[in-house]
Amino acid sequence: MKSQKLRSDFNCALAWAIFTLGASQLAFVLGGPITFLIVLFCCASLFAFFLVKVQAPGKRSLKRIAKPYLLSTGILLASTLLYYYLVFLKTNLSVVIFLSISILPFFIPLLITIPFLRKSAHVSQ
Predict the structure, then answer these.
(1) 78 phi and psi angles, rounded to 5 deg
(2) Neighbours of 44 (CB within 10 A)
């Protein structure tokens, strides 16, 4: 049963990472860096909202929500690096640093939801 849950977390994280990569790169090309950050933040917020709502109210925990979220962030970072390597055909340290910093807004919704998870046991049904 544990391997099935791990596979489910990985599939969910992979789907959201690929969706976020496509949406953010499309926003970057069409609207520029500000639109990129807005779309990245919106995708991350939707993913955090999805992870909170998919759990039963009495069983919400930081570990159950953070694991697929952090897995998705890692996949997003790796796929973004691969995307830039394939598109621009070169990478150097400055590109890696820029991409790492540009993925950091993906963490903000997870940090916002953490204070509300501790009170989830008090949610009425």
Answers:
(1) -65, -40
(2) 25
At 48, the amino acid letter reads A
Encode pLDDT of 1-52 as tens digits. 455 555 677 888 888 888 888 888 888 889 888 888 888 888 888 888 888 7
Q: Where are the domains of the chain?
A: 2-120
**Structure token pair of residue 25:** 């790169």
3-state secondary structure 56-124: CHHHCCHHHHHHHHHHHHHHHHHHHHHHHHHHHCCCCHHHHHHHHHHHHHHHHHHHHHHHHHCCHHHCC
Which residue is it, tokens 């340290």? Answer: 93
Neighbours of 37 (CB within 10 A): 15
Q: Which amino acid is at 29?
A: V
* 61: its two tokens: 């925990």
User: Nearest 10 degrees: CA dihedral of 72, 73, 77, 83?
Assistant: 40
Q: Rounded to an integer, what distance in angstroms lies between the CA atom of residue 119 and that of residue 67?
A: 19
What's the one-letter identity of residue 12?
Answer: C
- Return the DSSP state at 28: H
